[in-house]
Amino acid sequence: MGTGKLCDECEADQAASNLLHMKHAKLDEKTSMTLHELQRKTHALLPIQTLNPRDFPPVTSLRGFIAMCSTPYWKKLTQTDMREDQARLIISKRFAEIYLLPLLNKYEDVGKGISVTVYDMNGKIFQMTFKLWTNKVYVLKQGWNNFCLEHELCHDDDFETSVTLWMFRHVQTRKLCFVISPEKSSVIESSKRSRD
Q1: What is the C-alpha separation between 118 and 27, in angstroms, rounded?
Q2: Partners of residue 140 on adjacent β-strands
Q3: What is the distance between the alpha carbons of residues 100 and 168, in angstroms, rounded to a whole number?
Q4: Do residues 146 and 117 touch, judged by C-beta distance below 8 A?
């Protein structure tokens, strides 16, 4: 057996041993946060080819124009999400920090607000702003009311309204964009689905 092959086996054994040790090792807070940040960036910045087809926004007019894309985010809309005087869609802080923020470039400041193009499932365009409110809540605002009116999103005791959204970077413009897919289902259907 050549020494090269032996060295390769030794390296593989050492790597396996290191991984086993790391699996059970307690990390200090700084190392843990660094690893979590690397994991977040790596997971969120998957090339579009690695997404499952069901994770990809199904908008025909956008085929070939989506570069980096977040995983889909599903949300049951609250009454306040659909109130005209609120004029915003709240996005989960955890989801935004794990899946959306890694798509930002160094010049985009979500605290100041980022102008984004939002597409519905038919490819219709709505201009909105993606913003962090007082370090607590991520929102899509400004054009949100127009989107709600266009898709007749309003509170109704007989229907549950939800949205699925994706954030992506447009291949040609390099700008941030969203796709939002609204869905209404009867409360009876929703309760049957949750029991199944």
Answers
A1: 41
A2: 89, 130
A3: 9
A4: no
DSSP-assigned states of every residue in the chain: --HHHHHHHHHHHHHHHHHHHHHHPPPPHHHHHHHHHHHHHHHHT--GGGS-GGGS---GGGTTTEEEEPPPEEEEPPHHHH-TTT-EEEE-HHHIIIIIGGG--TT--TTT-EEEEEE-TT--EEEEEEEEETTTEEEEESTHHHHHHHTT---BTTEEEEEEEEEEEETTT--EEEEEEEEEEEHHHHHHHHH-
- Cα–Cα distance, 138 to 10 (Å, whole number): 49
Domains and CATH numbers, the chain: 3-44 (no CATH), 48-195 (2.40.330.10)
pLDDT tens readout for residues 129-154: 999 998 789 999 999 999 999 999 88
Q: What is the mean pLDDT of residues 61-69?
A: 87
Q: What's the pTM?
A: 0.69
